[in-house]
Amino acid sequence: MKDELFQQIHKKLLAKQREFLLLGGMPEAVQSYIESASVADVIDVQRSSAETYQDDFSKYAR
Q: Of 21, 17, 45, which is closest to residue 31 (Cα–Cα)?
């Protein structure tokens, strides 16, 4: 019984860790996931943020 409980807790924690790694801690991506629970939406937000960062680097490169 105790082992089953620990296995269930471990399984739930691993799922939460996967979510954390997927979202990457980016506030906009986290908000998107909270609102839609859609991984595709999160990836779109991450891609858009990365493109913005790249544009900024080229703007301010010397």
A: 45
